[in-house]
Amino acid sequence: MDIVAQTLALPAHALRRLLDAGVRTIDATFLIDVVAALVHEAGVDPHWLLTGHCDPSMHRHALLLGEDRSPGGAEAIRAFVQGQYQQLRNGATLLSLPPNVRS
After folding, report:
1. How many other C-beta atoms lie within 10 A of the C-beta of residue 25?
2. How high is the mean pLDDT of the chain?
3. Per-domain boundaries in the chain
4. Which residues of 49-73 are buried (b: 16+ CB within 10 A; e: fewer)?
5. Nearest-CA neighbor of 33 among 66, 55, 5, 61?
6. Cα separations (Å) of 92 from 19, 52, 103?
7. What are phi and psi for residue 24, nearest 5 degrees?
8. What digits encode the pLDDT tens for the residues 53-101?
């Protein structure tokens, strides 16, 4: 877990807490950080991570943002993921997240 957290530039204790099955409430801000880090570092489709369904156009857009390997590129991806999360939260149920995610 420490290596994954280090690769994603995230605090290991917070990542463990997010993945702990016993935790009842998920920190949405940290969840967005994790999704953005996975998108930036591994090129994973953010829509798939948030919903369980692939969206090729969103994935392509995220990959284009990810070509900027600077801190600005990482921030652009985080802003994109946060926007997608908010749209889904406001308009639909997040399929892969429990209803107790706090914003």
Report:
1. 9
2. 88
3. 2-102
4. bbbeeebeebbebbeebbeeeeeee
5. 5
6. 23, 13, 15
7. -85, -30
8. 999 999 999 999 999 999 999 999 999 999 999 999 888 554 555 555 5
